């Protein structure tokens, strides 16, 4: 389907039947991760997938030729192929991709169900069609589905519609780019953008991109989904904010982050702070979601053209705000999962007409395998819910409830805007959902740009601040209150002497003093209750202790470590950011930005049983999720080597004592003091594990023999451990440990799994005993009944 898809994309169609439960629309489409792969009950019949208004409206828009209309509608009523993306860290992604390609796909290659061959999962652009019945009844597919469910639960695989993977591909994000995701939750595209920023990552270590990604969503609860999603791709370049994207505040950045083109006025050069402009912005705006009707069947019943009419104003304002935050030469992708021109071409046309200096770009050859139709140049907005669509002459349009931007521009204007460069994707073209993408670019200034290093930017931003003049579109009064440019840009300090932002009266002594204590900050949001962000000084005792305990390299970015608590006294978790994220956090009021998180959590104070047992002084450990980011700074000599036998011991026992390990690991760990260490299990290493309960050696297990099964490690594995006075513990979370065990050994050999299996066996035995007792009682009752009133005894017994 899409030949330019990223390495991590895979697609599988898991469900093919009559249809599934109707959803509530696009924004509610994300489900509980664990349920995401389970097949739903059919509740909407094909016969109910009709909506007169939908058909009349779209026929009137001429979105497709007559010859395509029937196949379009027919495909709209077919269930959507289920696609998924491997989203975990590069280490996990590589393993999972290999597992699917090398283990699951071959195992599924020869499945024949009811006399018909079923195709295995394939990387996009291929597809697999599997009937629900096959999934339920074919043991091979059931196993594959279980694998998907498990990896989805631990967050390494997420269900994502194929078309929804497109916008980030059109953005072409590079590691040095400053990127904004305006409407980001639940975060599937954010994950793709992060992957692009981290294109230089290796299998075990994260890169340290100089770029930035701000992932924003106006829905507070949904920003937590974003944070959760992003935690799987730990990045020092990430910030998550909770703002209305249409009034996203201007972000200040100090001069050090910019280079100025020759001829820039002194007044500008001497300014201490400037507005940050982005290289790439994604506007995946809230929409009516009628392109998702194949999976959100509820939309069939309730669809009305007024859905799109009502969203148009907000969509336009979000796009306009993005345009005002874009760097010259920068790119915006505007996307919706709607096929309604009022939410698509109308928004793009109005935005281009209202803000000069932008153009649509032709991306038709960017993904050669993608089949799409060009954007349309004229449409007829619906005046009401009526099934009859009427157009109005231009002189009557002002009298309607619609605003000017709902209507199409003249054909000459549409030609000049190149609306044909917009891309419309319909379900029948390549068996996907419906989707719309437009790629806008801010024209370069006439003066050729000087060659500048990656981490330095032209002060193009400054010029814009000085000169920007924005023509505002007429917006419908009922849509939303109009937000003026002044409200956002005015908050920039005009004079270099104006103090930096962020008041935090309770800033700790050891923190960098970036706060104007007690000062009221212009634009601060007093209702925003998240903890402040406090950067530790590089010579803070906590940082110095971490450097020495964890054997960190001299180039460890000690100045970029931050803590999050109101007082700054207790340091439990330490986050790491890159320079640009630090600059933004320090130069902007975090409440005004509504900053939820920045950077990534990399270290934590060792607490709990182990520390208490050992009476440990304050010690820090590297978190498993932060390890890829920290690894480049851990001195190689301090990294321990181990084989899979060592890993087996760590998996099979909660707190294995040193004497349980074999040589050479035992001698390597024995003399070391208490603390956190990093262990590398090298690719190609061969190991064994006892089969505890799994299918691989079930026969041996049931005969109480110890099965030793051999495994080979296909990639380097690097993990954190904690050595106490007596034991060595693998420091990864319980579920992640089980997932790792499944990936490496093909079985869950962890202590937790063994205990759970034992518990299940005990319960089973108990219930069998109860059944036994019950049948004895039953037999007694039957016996008694038989003795007494023959014929009524069964009934009594069953009660
Ligand atoms: C289509 S969804 C985004 C999906 C997301 N890009 C992804 O790929 O996972 C639209 C999002 O816009 C958010 N939203 C709605 N109004 C908004 C606004 N004014 N500003 C920012 N976000 C908004 C919704 O909460 C929703 O999460």
Automatic annotation (TrEMBL):
Highest taxon listed in the record's lineage: Eukaryota
Compartments in which it is found: Nucleus
Keywords: Methyltransferase, Nucleus, RNA-binding, S-adenosyl-L-methionine, Transferase, tRNA processing, tRNA-binding
GO CC annotations on file: cytoplasm; nucleus
Principal subcellular localisation of the protein: nucleus
Gene3D superfamilies associated with the record: Vaccinia Virus protein VP39
Annotated S-adenosyl-L-methionine binding sites: 183-189, 217, 244, 284
Signal peptide positions on this chain: none
Annotated Basic and acidic residues bias: 468-477
Active site, per annotation: 337
Record carries keyword tRNA processing: yes
Compositionally biased spans, kind Acidic residues: 478-488
Region (Disordered): 446-519, 758-799
An annotated GO BP: tRNA methylation
Ranges of residues in domain SAM-dependent MTase RsmB/NOP-type: 72-443
GO molecular function: tRNA (cytidine-5-)-methyltransferase activity; tRNA binding
PANTHER family xref list: NCL1 YEAST -RELATED NOL1/NOP2/FMU SUN DOMAIN-CONTAINING (PTHR22808), RNA CYTOSINE-C(5)-METHYLTRANSFERASE NSUN2-RELATED (PTHR22808:SF1)
The family this protein is said to belong to: Belongs to the class I-like SAM-binding methyltransferase superfamily. RsmB/NOP family.
Entry protein name: SAM-dependent MTase RsmB/NOP-type domain-containing protein
Organism of origin: Phanerochaete carnosa (strain HHB-10118-sp) (White-rot fungus)
